[in-house]
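Escalation from tier 1.

The customer reports that the assembly of two entities below gives different structure tokens on two consecutive runs. Tier 1 could not reproduce it. I'm attaching the input and our single run for tier 2 to review.
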Amino acid sequence: MNDRRVSDDLLRPLLRTSRLFYVLVAILCAGVGLGAVSWYVQLSNGIGVWGLNWPVFWALDLTNFVFWIGISHAGTLISAILRLVNARWRRPVTRSAEAITVFALMIGAMFPIIHLGRPWLVFWMVPYPNDRAMFPNFRSPLVWDFFAISTYLTGSLLFLFLPMIPDLALVRDRTTGFRRKVYGMLALGWTGTTKQWHRLETAMQIMAIAILPVAISVHTVVSFDFSMAQVPMWHSTIFGPYFVAGAIFSGIAALIVAMAVLRRTLHLEQYLHPVHFQNLGKLLLMMSLLWMYFVFAERLTTWYGNEPSEMAVFWATQRGRFAPLYWTMLICNFAIPFPILAIRKLRTITGCVIASLAVLAGMWIERFLIIVPSLSYKHLPYSWGEYRPQPVEITLMISTFFAMALLFTLFAKFVPMISIWELKVGDHPAHEPTPAEQDEVQGLWRAQP
Amino acid sequence: MAHRWGMAVDQDRCTGCGACVAACHAENNIPTVGDDQAARGRAMHWIRVERYWEGEFPDVRLKFRPVMCQQCDAAPCESVCPTHASHHTDEGLNAQVYNRCIGTRYCANACPYNVRFFEFYNPVWPKPLQLQFNPDVSVRSVGVMEKCTFCVQRIKTAERDAKAESRPLKDGDIQPACAQSCGAKALVFGDLNDSESEVSRLSRSSRGTKLLEDLGTQPKVTYLQRQSE
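Tier 1 run:
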């Protein structure tokens, strides 16, 4: 495959627009608009239009928050780790992963704002100088959230943007007029000198290392929202790693789905090979086993410890009101993906996508089951309660999926979804290079004009 | 010496009449949400009377437990509030600054007693209830958390009056609305730093227990367990 063809293939979506694209964007915008209307209804009436009540003060809001922040771990962890170990097959994958990270993070970070009783005062969580010397409470995990997420968002934006620079320069050189100007600005004067390549490589190396602890800390802090409170089944030391593992799990699933969609719609069959899906499928399989291990460890210690308030929540999920959801979760996160991904014959693109869709559903349920049963069955049985989701919060939630699709579609329209320069310096992904070829590639990486 | 306000609840005396609940609503401008919202779990009773049946029919025994904010010394609600809306006062009260509350509802989730209530909608008072607002208590708007204050407005008034008359506060000078309206005198309020006060005496009772004491929240409400049949 020559360089020319790679550029042509991957730039085609940017330069040519079909009618279908406008239809798709219109539909997605309508979906997002639905969410905006829901939020308007909530703002003008009060959060009472949600199903929240005493004692379930958090439900879909925090479920979606944790779910989307979890999805955002696709990019950083996968992309950063694969970059660091220099896995060759990563090249066509990283850009989508990094884009998912940024968009999922933006959507996830929205929930702690819109779920507030008085969202217009959200800036009180920010430490800003003011005449009354009122600062946020640094002991609150919600304030830790603010810092963790803003750091992560900044880092992931950089991590997405840095490897985009040479591609943006390529687009700049292929376009004219207004577009050339915009891409020129975004390309930051990239000309492809050896010095620039060297700097880019260094910056990317630094970011790949720096983003890893940030990503892990973000989901740990998110888990602290729960584990810091003395609520049955929340107050647990396992939550940090459990949440991080679940996040990577759902992140990989989201990446597989997004890649399959891209492959089909942008005709990238030449670039996204079955081997990419198989490799990601293996990662997903590993995470499924890890997740199952965490569930087992959490459930067994709770059951064996037999602490009354925890057992109320335990039985409510195991065989009580939440049991249907609980067992669906286990089926979606383990019973479906495990055989599909473990058996080589089934680990096809379709197989991986089916497993991933199941995992996405299962991980959403997992987040819900962490939050709602615990709040429904707190220490005093007199104050046990029930929660039923209401239309406003459901439409809000659905609209976030539209928002994700919209952001991803627009991104694919304006930026090559596969890193063109990385593909050019790399080998054909399906082919394992000899050491001599590897040296050659390394040389290419450095000498790229 | 600073005061340390506390309460003793004698479960032998409580008849479960609910006068405390009504008095609390009237004193603290607590909205009544209506049947529909109450059925959906939005009722706001800063004090509630929990009812428990003990034993097997026909040998059952009825037990009432009025539960209000336990004014914990190590309050789980305070540390989690991102804006300091929920904070500890010098006199040991868990104060809630409505104006500072942005409505994360984290405090209500962290509270093991479930004694925090949220304004899910802007409150409305059916006529003629709007005529009996207590001018000493602010009316809360949509999106803020609220809870029992031990009738802090009465505490402050009594402290001010005592200061104006240059005399120390006497035990019994302050009566929260619930204690004042309790016909059976099951609720006793006072200063726990004054070892002679009635609340201190009752808190030392061998019948005394704290609600969910092993969570380490150090509540300032003592429950005197029921002994009579």
